[in-house]
Specification:
Metallo-beta-lactamase, Chain A; 39% helix; 11 helices; alpha/beta; six-stranded mixed beta sheet; globular; 17% strand
């Protein structure tokens, strides 16, 4: 949370609330510390496992923070209590934003840790897929290059995939973010939103959309797994500087 505190000081704003998509430590880890630092802080979420939770929200519930409007969109699958947040401002020329956590990624979707392909299909087609096409997609992780490498394997002739992958690689080389994308863009290259496209069905050997999705996720889970993968918690702790005191020279 110290990175968030630095941003708060830099932007000269007051932290009033936290919208948490799900309980996994890499999305909710700082809640307790922030709640201690900011008495009265409201923590919103849909899962009792979320740290420091004060307000449990439900699907379709609307929240307001000044001019910012928020619609809570329940998307169980990655976890059983996953909530996405759709945000907009009335009379604003800016496009709306979706904070999709680990449900929808740039070029991909989340793993089915606590749910089913049927649930993810509903999430992607009936809940998130029906949002305005100009919606900006702010997902929970930067895994765009790897997602698009898989998308290219699924649709090797898809020019939108090739162009987005080249762009994402360049951004990655320059240590720049690939987030956000837009929902319109995702329908062009994200195989998990293209379940009825013939090349995607041919790749999976399925035609029924839920079965296409199930096969895609299975293939993605086994896509070029590194032989030796660093512990993700340790890598994130290193990125956050938590090992700094141990690495300082005496």
């Amino acid at each position: 949370p110290f990175q968030l505190l630095e941003i708060i000081r830099k932007e000269d704003v007051v932290l009033r609330a936290i919208l948490t998509t799900h309980h996994h430590w890499d999305h909710a880890r700082g809640n307790e510390e922030l709640a201690q630092l900011f008495p009265g802080l409201r923590v919103f979420g849909a899962d009792e496992r979320i740290g420091a939770l004060t307000h449990r929200v439900t699907h379709g519930q609307q929240l307001s923070f000044g001019a910012i409007r928020v619609r809570c969109l329940f998307t169980p699958c990655h976890t059983s209590g996953h909530m996405c947040y759709f945000m907009w401002e009335d009379d604003s020329p800016d496009a709306p934003a979706l904070f999709s956590g680990d449900t929808l990624f740039v070029g991909g979707c989340g793993q089915f840790f606590e749910g089913t392909a049927e649930q993810m299909h509903t999430n992607l087609t009936q809940i998130l897929g029906t949002l305005p096409r100009d919606t900006k997609i702010f997902c929970g992780h930067e895994c765009t290059v790897r997602n698009l490498k898989f998308a290219l394997k699924v649709e090797p002739e898809n020019e939108a995939v090739k162009e987005k992958l080249a762009w994402a690689r360049q951004r990655d080389d320059e240590d720049l973010p690939t987030v956000p994308s837009t929902l319109h863009e995702e329908f062009l290259y994200n195989p998990f939103l293209r379940l009825t496209e013939e090349p995607v069905q041919r790749f999976t050997g399925r035609t029924e959309p839920v079965e296409v999705l199930r096969a895609l996720r299975s293939q993605r889970d086994n896509f070029k797994k590194p032989k030796e993968r660093p512990n993700p918690q340790a890598m994130l702790a290193f990125d956050w500087g938590l090992f700094g005191p141990l690495l300082e020279k005496k």
